[in-house]
Write the structure tokens for this entry.
Amino acid sequence: MEIGEKLKFVRSALYVPASNARALEKARSLDVDMLIIDLEDAVPDEMKAEARAAALGYVAAGVGGKILAIRANGIDSAYHADDLAALRGSAVDLVVLPKVESAGALPDIGLPLLAMIETPAGLYAAREIAAHASVAGLIVGTNDIAAETGIKPGREREGLQLALQTIVLAASAAGKPRFDGVCNRLDDMDGFDVECRQGATFGFTGKTLIHPSQLAIANQAFGPDAAAVAEAEELIAASRGGAQRFKGRMIESMHVEQAKMTIERSRHAMGDR
Ligand code: COA
Ligand code: MG
């Protein structure tokens, strides 16, 4: 299966600072669909070169069944060019680019890109960015959006809803996956659960994460549960084509397609990835 297709089944995407050897080691054994080895925000300036070398070594060694991405420093950063030069020709599956603000600014590094939308300009250009041939999907940078706009997200993220929905629409218009932003509150697991379910309800296909303690909840929220799979199977079996009544509601062929996708997602979640 090619990477763009695999990415559609990613529920959990964990950032791992490339400067943190212990976290890199720990990441190998975690139940996570994708690792994003970070060269950007999580790495202090004095460790940028060392972190880049560590990330490339990590990729060369491989991590079994997980998708591997590296987040480069942004286009405006002094480290950007060196990052891209090092990534060209590496065995990494995807490159994450921060603060993308236009499709025209996307570099060609011969690898699929995950574009981060995390500025007002990026939000206005999200549709063109998502449609670009090199872009495999979008990631929301909620911390940066809040910082750049003055939006105070609130526990239910009321202030961020337009931004989140803009990104879901842009990515889905291009038929591509979209990943919700991180939750910084490490000790509020109930709030985290609510946020994951909100993201899934909004149409995100997975969530970016910062700590191993967030994995199980995200995998559950973005992977269909047993009841959803059972219902999908029942719906497919009952379907006769066209509109009909099913358990008190109308279903049509699009609901059959959705049910098939639910079953496919659950197969991947069970380890077929
Ligand atoms: N990936 C892999 N392992 C991680 C991890 C991560 N993102 N975050 C923590 N761990 C590991 C730790 O190495 C530690 O492993 P050990 O049991 O082998 O010692 C274990 O999980 C427990 O970590 P903990 O002590 O709770 O973390 P912390 O308090 O030291 O650090 C953070 C908290 C937020 C600083 C840290 O989780 C982190 O750096 N997260 C990623 C941040 C990031 O990448 N930001 C950029 C994108 S927004
Ligand atoms: Mg950032």
The chain has a mean pLDDT of 96. The chain is about 45% helix and 15% strand. The CA atoms of residues 34 and 67 lie 5 Å apart.
